[in-house]
Amino acid sequence: MNDLLLALTGDPGVTTLLAGNSSGDGSAGILFPFLAGPAVFIAVYLGIYRFYRNTDKRHEFERKTEVSVGNLRSADRRVGSNNRQRSRRMNGSNEDDHLVRVQRIQVR
Amino acid sequence: MSVPPQQPPWQQPSGPTQGPGGPPAPQRQPTPPQGERSPAPPQQAAPPQQPADPQVPTGPPAGGDRVVDTSSSVGDGLHKCPRCGSAEIRYSIPARALECAYCRHHWNEEVAEQKFGLDSSIAELQGHTLASGTADVREDLTTVTLKCQGCGAEVVINIAEQMQSRCHWCRQTLSVNSQIPGGAVPDAVLPFLLTREEAVERISAFVDKRRSFASPRFKREFVPENVMGVYIPYMVVDGNMHAELRGTGEVTTRSYTVRRKVGDNYVTEQYYDADVYQVQRGFDLLVNDLAVESARRFQAEDASQATNNVLNAVQPYDTANAVVYNSSYLTGFTSERRDLNVRDLDQDVEEDFLAIARSKVQPTVANFDRGVRWEQEGVAVRGTRWVSVYVPVWLYSYADSAKGDGSLIHYIAVNGRNGNTMGSVPVSHPLIFALSCVLGTLAAVIGGAIGLAWFLS
Question: Any transmembrane segments, and where (chain A) (predicted)?
Fold first, then answer.
């Protein structure tokens, strides 16, 4: 059961529920039951399904394969600024999405 | 990365050949690389010629490709105990060695990497180095005729189903050990370390944690003792390459809050200013023992027929300890024939190299706190080395009997080396739906009470 609870708390739906509403308007409280009910329904359903079926499990070869890296060359050049952004993260950041391929270039 | 087609080691470069026990096979193009082992036996799958020194690559350095002969010193037919000469040999998991059924003598084959020089420095790899067990599979080759050295009888074996058979006259065990191009004989085999009883325990424990919402039929039909020991074919790839990544990164220079009026209320909003950088990384990468499935049936990307991701998830395997292939290791287990060639896998492997490159470069862009968007990537593969290996898996499979032949096969797999366990248990959707409704309703009621209190405050 502990594993199940861990799976449930790891679900993004639960954190969405707990985040609540940031507008500070008391009338938004009326929305609480309409948000909380479906959010918990989805989180429980997907959490249990994922815990049983393990459809997301795979060997993370990109992290676990034995690899040696050498001759690292870095070239970072400032090209401008991006001000007054609402998000803490930049648009389209993909440094964590190792399996999603981008435009292929020829390397010699 | 493009790997040329491989010719089976004994394929005649000119004129039709005859498969073991079968009709003449059409001539294959292109011509095999120069310097491969000399052509051999037309009629039977007698063992291919043994080179004087197996560590000397038999393929040509020209063209950047070479073939390392990994054919076993054990020939086809009778494989005898070195002490008493009995052919009753099987692999003993408790002893972790081959065992003679008569004199209880134990022994193991040599570690393949060391015997065939496959552990040489990856940094020195140039071109494609292919162990001979990775030769292209001939789909039409399904039978092999063995001559019993005991009585002279000829025995036909269907290599799609078995690699050993008893002589129907003298009852001695005959084995196929030569690398016939049917995909059934790899370069090396990683024997089981985990016993059947240990596997049953792990599978039972895995399912016990998942009984509450499991499908009722699965709970009724679950018999962990039905677990089977299966050898699954993998290609193990080493790579020497240079990788380049280009993209855009952002660094936060200021964060601040702005309070503004919306209607009758004030809202506070958080804003961020950032510097934008062009980011580029180039580095050399040496990849050791990347394992990829080489049987279509078990490919992790295809989960339409079976939960193949489960098999993928029980990795890694210590393939460096794989021993030279000997069919006696397979006695008492089942094995899946390889049906994917190097050419079928090389694009996937190159993408895996890119994924590894992206993963390894991550610590070097940690200063871009708003993230990095990689836009271009590439690898220049200088050299690769391919070895085919059988890896051991204890496999429990379940298909819903009520859904017939098209039913999804659920696997529960245990890594036969380190005991990693993963599985898929069919769920009871009505039960999950009911629980979700109850908890969702409860959350709605609590949310309503909190919301009402907030509204009234």
Answer: 30-52
Q: Find out whether B424 and B411 touch, Cβ atoms under 8 Å.
A: yes
Q: Does A2 touch chain B (CB under 8 A)?
A: no
Residue of B209, B281, B373 with shortest CB distance to A93 = B373
- pLDDT tens digit sequence for B143-155: 777 777 777 767 7
Average pLDDT of chain A? 81
Q: What's the pLDDT at B14?
A: 34
A26 touches chain B (CB under 8 A): yes
Q: Domain residues for A45?
A: 1-19+30-55
Least confident of A63-67, B29-33, B197-201, B320-324: B29-33
Best probe of the B interface among A25, A30, A55, A61, by most B CBs < 10 A, is: A61
Nearest by CB: B452 against A29, A85, A94? A29
How many CB atoms within 10 Å of residue B163?
Answer: 24
Question: B328 in a domain, yes or no?
Answer: yes
The pLDDT of residue B181:
61
B387 within a domain of the structure (yes/no) = yes
CB contacts < 8 A, A to B, total 276
Is A44 among the domain residues? yes
Model pTM score: 0.78
Number of folded domains in chain A? 1
Query: Is A50 within the bounds of a domain?
Result: yes
Q: How far is A10 from chain B (nearest CA, A)?
A: 16
Of all residues in chain B, the percent with pLDDT exceeding 70 is: 81
User: Does B184 map to a domain?
Assistant: yes
Phi and psi of B263, rounded to 5°?
65, -125
Residue B285 banded pLDDT, cuts 50, 70, 90: very high
- Structure token digits, residue B376: 């271009």
Look at residue B455 and tell me if it is in a domain: no
What is the complex's ipTM, to 2 decimals?
0.76
What is the bridge-based pairing of β-strands B106-107 and B265-293?
unpaired
Q: Does residue A107 belong to any structural domain of this protein?
A: no
**CB-based contact B368:B251 (threshold 8 Å):** yes
Looking at the complex, report in whole angstroms how far the Cα of residue A16 sits from the nearest Cα belonging to chain B. 13
Range of the domain at B130: 27-240+283-362+381-423
CB atoms within 10 A of CB B95: 12
A10: in domain: yes
**pLDDT tens readout for residues B75-123:** 666 677 888 988 888 899 999 999 998 999 999 999 998 888 888 899 9
Task: Tell me which residue in B358, B435, B439 faces A98 most closely, judged by beta carbons.
Answer: B358
Question: Confidence band (pLDDT; 50, 70, 90) for B20?
Answer: very low
CB contact under 8 A, A107 and B379: yes
Across the interface, do B267 and A3 touch by the CB < 8 Å criterion? no
Most confident range, picked from A102-106, B2-6, B48-52:
A102-106
Q: Tell me the sheet residues that pair with B386.
A: B130, B237
Cα B298 from chain centroid (whole Å):
8
- The contacts of residue A102 (CB under 8 Å, 6+ apart) are A94, B247, B374, B375, B376, B377
